[in-house]
Specification:
With about 325 residues, this protein is an alpha/beta fold. It has 11 helices and 12 strands. Keywords: 4Fe-4S, GTP-binding, Iron, Iron-sulfur, Lyase, Metal-binding, Molybdenum cofactor biosynthesis, Nucleotide-binding, S-adenosyl-L-methionine.
C-alpha cells in the first residue's frame, strides 16, 4: 500500500514487550520498568490478527522486537504462525542475544530468516557496564551458533558513542574480513534515555569513513536505511545508519506496532493510532491500518530539533 507521499509501505516492526533482561544505559532506566497488567498488552493471537490484516494491505516483512522479545514464552510458535501467512516473505528478529544461543534451532525451524543482535562493545567489562550486568560471552556464542545453523546474514547493531566505543570501530570492521556478518553502526538518537547522553556522546557515522578510507562502497537496496561498504576481499559488510545527520525518511517503508496495540507511523512522531479495539472486527481493523499508513508523516525533525517528538521511550517502541 502507498502512503500519501507515494512510499510503498511493506514492512511492519512489532514490539512484543517493553520488558527486557538488560538495562542498557541509552535505552532502559536502571531500575527497570513497572510490570503492566496482562490485559493491557497484546496477546500473540491478537498480534497475528494485526499481522494478517497488515499482510492484506501489502505488508511483506515482519520484524519482531522488544524490549527483549526472547523473554516471552511461545515466540517460536508466533514466528511459525506468521510464516504460514502466504504473502509474508521475510520474518526477522531483533534481540540482545543473551537468550538466543539455546533458542536458535527452534526459531529457525519455526521460520525465522534473519536476526539482528545489539552489541555495542567487544570488551567484556565495557559490555557489563553499558548493559548493567550483561554477559558478553553469551552473545558471542549466539552469533557463532546463528552462523553455524545458516541464519543470515547475522546483523550486529552497534550504537556509536563518543568516548565509549569509537576506538573499537576498527575491531568491529575487522570481524567482516573472515565472517559473513553485517556490522551496522547506528548514530545515537535523542529519544528516551538516549536523550540524556546525546549531547556528550553523539557521533556521526560519517567519521568512520574519514578514519577508514579502505571501506569500499557497495550497491544499496532502494529501501535500505544503511549505506553499505566492505573491505577488499571481506566476507561481510559494514553499514552506516545516519538517522540524525542524514535522514532517510523519503524511502522509509515501515510502520510500527507497540505492545499496547497502537500503530506508530513514524518512530519519532508523537502521533499513534490505537487499533486494539478493532482487533476482533476485521473490517474496522483494516480501515484503522489503512489510516495509519495513509497518515504516515513525511519526515522526522531530529536534524532541526535535536529531540524526538515521540512521547515513548525506545524500549516501548522497539529498536
Amino acid at each position: 500500500m502507498l502512503d500519501s507521499y507515494g512510499r510503498s509501505i511493506d514492512y511492519l516492526r512489532v514490539s512484543l514487550t517493553d520488558r527486557c533482561n538488560l538495562r542498557c544505559i541509552y535505552c532502559m532506566p536502571e531500575e527497570g520498568i513497572s510490570k503492566r497488567n496482562h490485559q493491557d498488552v497484546l496477546r500473540f493471537e491478537e498480534i497475528l490478527k494485526i499481522v494478517k490484516g497488515s499482510a492484506s494491505l501489502g505488508i511483506k516483512k515482519i520484524r519482531y522486537t522488544g524490549g527483549e522479545p526472547l523473554i516471552l514464552k511461545g515466540i517460536d510458535e508466533l514466528i511459525y504462525n506468521t510464516s504460514q501467512i502466504s504473502t509474508i516473505e521475510d520474518i526477522s528478529l531483533t534481540t540482545n542475544g543473551i537468550l538466543l544461543y539455546d533458542m536458535v534451532p527452534e526459531l529457525k525451524k519455526a521460520g525465522l530468516k534473519r536476526v539482528n543482535i545489539s552489541l555495542d562493545t567487544l570488551n567484556s567489562e565495557k559490555y557489563s557496564y553499558i548493559t548493567r550486568g550483561g554477559d558478553l560471552s553469551k552473545v558471542i556464542g549466539a552469533i557463532d551458533k546463528c552462523m553455524a545453523l545458516g541464519i543470515g546474514p547475522v546483523k550486529i547493531n552497534v550504537v556509536l558513542m563518543k568516548d565509549f566505543n569509537d576506538k573499537e570501530v576498527g575491531d568491529f570492521i575487522n570481524l567482516t574480513k573472515s565472517m559473513p556478518i553485517s556490522i551496522r553502526f547506528i548514530e545515537l538518537m535523542p529519544i528516551g534515555e538516549g536523550e540524556k547522553l546525546y549531547k556528550e556522546s553523539a557521533l556521526s557515522t560519517d567519521t568512520i569513513l574519514e578514519d577508514y578510507p579502505n571501506l569500499i562502497p557497495i550497491s544499496n537496496r532502494s529501501d535500505s536505511t544503511a549505506r553499505l561498504f566492505k573491505l577488499k576481499d571481506g566476507k561481510g559488510t559494514v553499514g552506516l545508519i545516519n538517522p540524525v545527520s542524514c535522514k532517510f525518511c523519503n524511502r522509509c517503508n515501515k510502520i510500527r506496532l507497540t505492545p499496547m496495540g497502537t500503530i506508530k507511523p513514524c518512530l519519532h512522531s508523537e502521533n499513534e493510532i490505537n487499533i486494539k479495539e478493532y482487533i476482533y472486527n476485521e473490517e474496522l481493523l483494516i480501515a484503522a491500518l489503512k489510516k495509519a499508513i495513509t497518515n504516515k508523516p513525511l519526515e522526522h525533525h531530529l536534524d532541526k530539533e535535536k529531540s524526538s517528538r515521540s512521547k515513548k521511550m525506545m524500549y516501548q517502541i522497539g529498536g
